[in-house]
Structures are given as C-alpha cells and as structure tokens.
Amino acid sequence: MPRAIISPSVLASDFGQLTAECTRMIKGGAEWLHMGAPILSCVKKGIPDIFMDCHMMVAEPEKWVDDIADAGGALYCFHYEATSDPLSLINAIHNRSMKAGIAISPDTPSTVITDEIANAADMLLVMTVYPGRGGQKFLEKCVPKVAELRARFPEKDIEVDGGVGPSTIDKCAHAGSNVIVAGTAIFGASDPENVITVLKATVNSAQAKIAASRA
Ligand SMILES: O=C(CO)[C@@H](O)[C@H](O)COP(=O)(O)O
Fold first, then answer.
1. Is the beta carbon of 8 within 6 A of some atom in ligand 1?
2. Phi and psi at residue 28, in whole multiples of 5°?
3. What count of Cα atoms within 13 Å lies in the side-chain half-sphere of residue 11?
4. Which ranges of the sequence are coiled-coil (predicted)?
5. Which among 115, 135, 145, 201 is most buried, taking Cβ atoms within 10 Å?
6. Residue 183 Cβ contacting ligand 1 at under 6 Å
C-alpha cells in the first residue's frame, strides 16, 4: 500500500529563510520538499539528507537533467506535454541516479500515461491547477484522473499539486493520491505542522480503505 508523503511547495525567496523553512517543515513531519531548481545546491549543503522533489515546469526538460542531478535533486519530474520522448527522458533521469516523475496538466487525459510510461516512471503527477503559480483554485475535474491512474497502478506514487489543503485533501486521497504538494495551505497556515498532520492522516486512512477494498 503506498504510504502518505507530504511535499510542501516551499515558497521562501531568501536563502536563510528557505533553509529555516525546510528545517521546520521536516521537523513538522514533511518527508519530501518541493522547490525551484536554482536554489537546490544551496539547500543541499545546509540539509544534506533532504529529499528534493524537483518539479520541472519547463520546456525542453531534457536540458536540465544533469544540472539538477549535480545540484542534489532526488526526483526529477517533467511534464508529459513538454517532451516528445518521455521514455528516453525517464531513462536519462535514471542514468543520473534520480527518480523520475511525469506530470500531466489539467487538460491532458490520464490515458496518455501508457502502461509502459507508468511502469518506467517512479511517480505520476496529476496537476490540479494550471502550471505556473501557487494560490490557484483546486480543479475538481482533475480528480477522476487520479482515480483512473490509481486503478491501473495500485503501487505507484501518485502526486497531486495545486490548490490542495485541508478542504480538498479528502477528494484527492479518496481518489488514490498518496503524494501531496501543498503551498498556500501549509505556508499560509498559523499552524503548518497541524496541516501536514491532517493531510498525512487523511491520505493514510484513504490508502488503508483502498487497500482493504482490494483484499
Ligand atoms: O507550482 C505550482 C503550480 O504551478 C504548485 O506547486 C503550487 O506552487 C502549489 O501551490 P498551492 O496551489 O498549494 O498554493
């Protein structure tokens, strides 16, 4: 059964604040952190054991694999829409000893993730907002894609990103998502640790129900 992984989308801009935020999130129960590429090596120096989930919302994602690997990235997630050869890119990411994630934007059907692609990738990301910025409204229309992917890939890490927080986590978790990216819901909260706890508990309980329904 996939376990709950909460990945705060780190929104700090100053390096000192960033390192402090990362440390605080990890102490608060976050297991993965979700950050922009230019700050990776700096953060890696400060927190050597960090797991950096690098969501590359870029054109030509093939270009940045080496830079991200050299900077200490642990997972390189690219957008299906940005490449013509996802399988070769997954291979290139694995060759640099990173995990590979593949994201689909809100208007892309989950069926583009073929069995071959999903089996090669380590994580599937269903965007629940249009890529670009934090603070957007969660798009419910994306939830059935999570359920479709979970039905086909019971053991895969399936991530959601965009507008996810205590008011939308139920839908994501019950559809089968187990990796949660949350920016505003965590960093805008007066008690971020509590938000992480709630997200994690909701996912763990949904995963247990999904596993029981299959038994
Ligand atoms: O990069 C993106 C969306 O483009 C996301 O990672 C957001 O940054 C998540 O932020 P919230 O939607 O949770 O505020």
1. no
2. -80, 0
3. 12
4. none
5. 145
6. yes
Q: Domains, the chain, ranges and CATH? A: 5-214 (3.20.20.70)
CB–CB of 82/104 below 8 Å?
no
For ligand 1, say whether the CB of 35 is within 6 Å of any of its atoms. no
**Measured distance CA(215)–CA(209) in Å, rounded:** 10
pLDDT digit string, tens, across residues 96-140: 999 999 999 999 999 999 999 999 999 999 999 999 888 999 999
- The verdict on the CB of residue 133 being under 6 Å from ligand 1 is yes
What was the ipTM of the complex prediction? Answer: 0.96
Joined tokens for residue 159? 């991530």
Which pTM value belongs to this model? 0.87
Q: How far apart are CA 109 and CA 112, in angstroms?
A: 6
